[in-house]
Amino acid sequence: xxxxxxxxxxxxxxxxxxxxxxxxxxxxxxxxxxxxxxxxxxxxxxxxxxxxxxxxxxxxxxxxxxxxxxxxxxxxxxxxxxxxxxxxxxxxxxxxxxxxxxxxxxxxxxxxxxxxxxxxxxxxxxxxxxxxxxxxxxxxxxxxxxxxxxxxxxxxxxxxxxxxxxxxxxxxxxxxxxxxxxxxxxxxxxxxxxxxxxxxxxxxxxxxxxxxxxxxxxxxxxxxxxxxxxxxxxxxxxxxxxxxxxxxxxxxxxxxxxxxxxxxxxxxxxxxxxxxxxxxxxxxxxxxxxxxxxxxxxxxxxxxxxxxxxxxxxxxxxxxxxxxxxxxxxxxxxxxxxxxxxxxxxxxxxxxxxxxxxxxxxxxxxxxxxxxxxxxxxxxxxxxxxxxxxxxxxxxxxxxxxxxxxxxxxxxxxxxxxxxxxxxxxxxxxxxxxx
Length: 435
Description:
The protein folds into 2 domains: about 5-270, Spore Coat Polysaccharide Biosynthesis Protein SpsA, Chain A, CATH 3.90.550.10; about 300-435, 3 Solenoid (UDP N-Acetylglucosamine Acyltransferase, domain 1), CATH 2.160.10.10. The protein contains 10 helices and 30 strands. It has helices at about 40-45, 60-70, 100-105, 130-140, 155-160, 180-185, 190-195, 220-225, 235-245, 260-270; strands at about 5-10, 30, 35, 50-55, 80-85, 120-125, 125-130, 145-155, 160-165, 170-175, 205-215, 245-250, 255-260, 300, 305, 310, 315, 320-325, 325, 330-335, 340-345, 365-370, 375-380, 385, 390, 400-405, 405-410, 410-415, 420, 435. Strands 15, 16, 18, 19, 21, 23, 25, 26, 27, 28 and 30 form an 11-stranded mixed sheet that branches. Strands 1, 4, 5, 6, 8, 9, 10, 11 and 12 form a 9-stranded mixed sheet that branches. It has a 3-stranded parallel sheet with strand order 14-17-20, with no helix packed on it. A hairpin with a 3-residue loop joins strand 2 and strand 3 (about 35). The longest helix has 12 residues, at about 235-245.
């Protein structure tokens, strides 16, 4: 894999993930209690033997830069790196990245090294575990110019994805973005028998969705970028490559989730806390890497915890009840609190740490106060939730709207980063309004 270089796309503004992306980019959103989304593609690269990775960033990238810089420091003897390429104004151009392909075009000089033969293009906001060696083997054995990772899905999901049409050898001969009519769906349908023959059980899945993961021959990619003004891989570069080049499909049948909406994010996080998680963090052969924080073990004082993940450095006081929830780093949960179906992202400071103090001495400390009830919510980092607070979706609450300082997106309650809720605050008492 020494001849492979990877470009990870840092994502756009992430408007569908607001308010989680109000102060951070999508790849910097915390996941799994102690990780960031960006840890997923970089870990997949490391576990696959890819040691040269470039991260293209643009929006709200400070925390993302800090995390990558503090996490991925390769030793000087193996020649590996994870390098950040932020959008910048140069003598060649004064505009920002205009799309995924344009972002790579503006950094094409990093593809000029003579030892680079293949370029892997990844998204920074997807949750999956993949061995890219297998994808490269498929690419080379079929003498392909481009290989795209595809995922078998059923007809119900097909209308939300770009769907590939293959010939009997797995070569991509057509592509349709989000087919809607039955005629369009029939045009890109893949035979279940053919999928079964590839060693993957079709189980009623007759469509192969693009995962937004591309492997290019270096010269093929450079030509596509420099000889056209295409701005997007999915909408322009990939369809054009199908017409002019040999594009091969790589079939993937593991867990994969595009973390593009609040609902998708919330559900994927709670799935991690289930007794049989579809995305398993506890895999010694392919770990997910992140920044070491040297936190103490979590202290739990006579609490009742069911089907949950508890991260490092937490303090959970007596008689609290935590059910089907994900508890992030340094979380403090007071006595007799009830946490149900909650993604609690944790904190940067402990309650008594002066660095996390506010100017108002009456503000509650960082964490969840005594007797507080939270149900079906995402609580972003560094929130101060007082005693006897009740956060659960009231009747008549809009699917997308604002309830005082609390926001509802896709039907999920979101408490934004750094929110302060005083003792006795109740979501039921707040008049909801739509955006």
